[in-house]
Amino acid sequence: ENAATASVSRSYSAELLACWRLAGHRRSCALALAGAMSKAGVLRLRIISGSNLPAVDSGSCDPFLEARIVRPDGKILCSSRTKVLRRTQDPVWNEVLSLHCTEDATLELHVYDSNRFRRDTSVLNVPLGRLGELELGPEKRVAEQDGVRLVYSAEVFPKVSMAMLTSLIHSQKLDLGSICSGARDLALYYSKTLGTLAEEYASAFERIGNILQSQAWKTALDAEFEALDSDRNGMLSFDEIFPRNAHVWFSDVAQRSGMDFFESLPPAPRQPCADQALLRQQWRVYDVDHSDTLSKTEYKNFVTSIALWHLTCGFMASRARSECQIGEAELRAIWRRFEKFDADLSCTMDATELGDLLEEMGETYGADELQIIYDDMDADHDGVLDVVEFCRWWCSIPV
Q1: Which CATH superfamily is domain 42-157 in?
Q2: CATH assignment of 162-396, given 1.10.238.10, 3.40.980.10, 3.40.50.300, 3.30.428.10?
Q3: Distance CA 175, CA 15 (A)
Q4: What's the average model confidence in pLDDT over 140-157?
Q5: CA 321, CA 332: separation in Å to the nearest integer?
Q6: Contact 346, 166 (CB under 8 A)
Q7: Closest CA to 289 of 382, 170, 164, 398
Q8: For the chain, what percent of residues have pLDDT higher than 70?
Q9: What is the rounded average pLDDT for all residues in the chain?
Q10: Cα dist. 136→44, 67, 112, 131, 141 in Å?
Q11: pTM
Q12: Number of C-beta neighbours around residue 264 at 10 A
């Protein structure tokens, strides 16, 4: 923990790191949180400007910049580029690029001169270094090489996962601003596969972040708690909150708090409030003293997690439909199988849970073999197997 904390302390707030340490009471949750924080995130890279670029064609240059995230083995994990600016050696791009990143990967900036009828000409290559060692933040930074200056800023937000959300909320150290910003950038990262739907999810994550941090939300939950506390003992039992259909309860909460935009987004195969048993399982996470009741603070955290869980599950389901090219019935069947072994309802699966699933299928592996399979299924190398990666693997199994 000490080594990992030192390497990510530049990228994440003290509150997030404190939550990581406090999350050890739940094994799967803590592992997923550690993986998400120490290994993966969304890099928001603002490319501001360049100056003194060399002339390439006819005494000028048509520059664009390509940012690359390069894995330790030299393979490009992902890349994104700015627009092309015509006939300038002092370009002002002022564009924001979102890239999936891992802590041990390297950030590289490549400037090219755009050519219409032949390969683009390389103008400048600047390796900025490992992300875990870079100075990150919203402040402007300058990279210089051979008299050329590039001005940029870079921030890393944690990759959203329900394991992380649950741990952060449960430890009462939730940095909603960072979480929702990371979720928004992650949604935009998938714009190539989701199209305009990615922008809708990005907007939804931004809106829900504003709502969950507002005083109006806190006031509404206070009033809701008082109204539900029928015996006036300052605690809520499960039956006091859910004497009726849980989905109706959440719809009412969403309507009153301005989260009715949920209804316009594609749902997950099984929503958090789909049945009482699923909700009861999530309830137990927030019943810290095992009294089968929730205090006002525990209730607020519980409802906040349900709202974020609701939106995150829908986003993951949309990705699975698009990336795996599967219909609703097939997605529902895969989702149910994944959920059966997702013991903490985190929408992620650790190696032990994967081993249980494979054993049910009649396949038994040793710890080393299982880890190799797990790492192979973890396509984005963030140390966590999410439901989308599981769907992709499941669809690749020969019938």
Answers
A1: C2 domain (2.60.40.150)
A2: 1.10.238.10
A3: 7
A4: 90
A5: 10
A6: yes
A7: 170
A8: 77
A9: 77
A10: 10, 16, 25, 8, 9
A11: 0.64
A12: 8
pLDDT in tens, 319-360: 889 888 888 889 988 888 888 887 666 677 878 888 888 888
Scan for tokens 């590039």, then name that residue.
150
Tell me the CA distances in angstroms from 272 to 266, 278, 341, 347, one per residue in order: 14, 7, 16, 11
Using CA atoms, how far residue 344 sits from 38, 162, 271, 282, in Å, is: 21, 9, 15, 8
Q: Which two tokens stand for residue 159?
A: 């990759």
Q: What angle do CA 187, 193, 198 make, to 5 degrees?
A: 30
Helix (H) or strand (E) holding 230, with range, is none
The whole-angstrom separation of Cα 202 and Cα 183 is 7
Q: How many helices (H) and strands (E) does the chain have?
A: 16, 12
Report whether pLDDT(160) > 80.
no
Q: Residue 34: is its pLDDT beyond 70? A: no
CA–CA–CA angle 105, 107, 109 (5° rounding): 155
Domain ranges of the chain: 42-157, 162-396
Both ends of the chain: CA-CA distance in Å?
Answer: 42
Q: Where are the alpha helices (DSSP H) in the chain?
A: 2-8, 14-22, 27-39, 162-170, 176-189, 191-194, 196-212, 215-228, 238-241, 246-257, 276-286, 296-324, 328-341, 351-360, 367-377, 387-396
Q: Do domains 42-157 and 162-396 have the same CATH topology?
A: no
Stretch 110-131: mean pLDDT, rounded?
91
